[in-house]
Amino acid sequence: MSHPATPIKHRSQHNGDRSFIRFINKTNDEVCVIWLDFDGNPVPFAYLITKGAFVDIDTYENHPWMFENPNNGDRFVVEKSEVYFPVSWKTEYRKMNRPQRGCSRQPIQRKNLLITYPVDSLKDRALRVIRNVLEKPEDSFKLDIPHSIQADVYKLMLKKSRNRNQATQDSRS
């Protein structure tokens, strides 16, 4: 699986409270759940193949997570953000009303987090639609559209090709 060429400025920290989360795929696409390690390197953690698939993760509030389509590199969001930082269970507990907390020892509840599509600009959405109907990156220059948009489609097509090639290599190893 390839990862974006733009540097990731987020990375996991060694301190922080625990967080118990459940990422749920609400898209019609395959989603790779990615943890950003202590150096900021993306580490594939789980693949959610179908809509409704989920993964339970015991993590920490200072551990960032990202979500990507392994086939074309498109990013997804959780709580409207491409990079999600979990909230500690203590913070979630304090948000509860006192009667909800109760005195009995109830298990800590996982926070359900929905992986969704980002709200794209009209241009970005149009570029993705065009990319999905073309067979080869070079085909973008055959379209009767402005050259700058042809170039944008071409770049998206190359990114899609690299992701497919990387996925093929990963499956062979």
**Shape summary:** elongated
The amount of beta strand, in percent, is 15-25%
Runs in which pLDDT lies below 50 for 5 or more consecutive residues are 1-6
Counting H and I runs of at least 4 residues, what is the number of helices? Answer: 4
User: Could you describe the largest sheet, including whether it forms a barrel?
Assistant: 4 strands, mixed
Helix content: 25-40%
Protein name: von Hippel-Lindau disease tumour suppressor beta domain-containing protein
Family: Belongs to the VHL family.
Pfam families: VHL
InterPro entries: VHL_alpha_dom_sf, VHL_beta_dom, VHL_beta_dom_sf, VHL_sf, VHL_tumour_suppress_b/a_dom
Can you put this structure into words, describing what you see?
- This is von Hippel-Lindau disease tumour suppressor beta domain-containing protein.
- It holds the Pfam family VHL.
- Belongs to the VHL family.
- This protein is of the alpha+beta class and 173 residues long.
- It has four helices and eight strands, in the order βββββββααβαα.
- The protein has helices at residues 89-95, 98-101, 122-133, 147-172, and strands at residues 18-25, 31-36, 42-48, 54-60, 65-68, 77-78, 83-84, 111-116.
- The protein has a four-stranded mixed sheet with strand order 4-1-8-6, with no helix packed on it.
- A hairpin with a 5-residue loop joins strand 2 and strand 3.
- Helix 3 (122-133) packs across helix 4.
- The longest helix has 26 residues, at 147-172.
What topology does this entry show?
Blueprint: E1 18-25, E2 31-36, E3 42-48, E4 54-60, E5 65-68, E6 77-78, E7 83-84, H1 89-95, H2 98-101, E8 111-116, H3 122-133, H4 147-172
Parallel strand pairs: 1-8
Antiparallel strand pairs: 1-4, 2-3, 2-5, 5-7, 6-8
Helix pairs in contact: 3-4
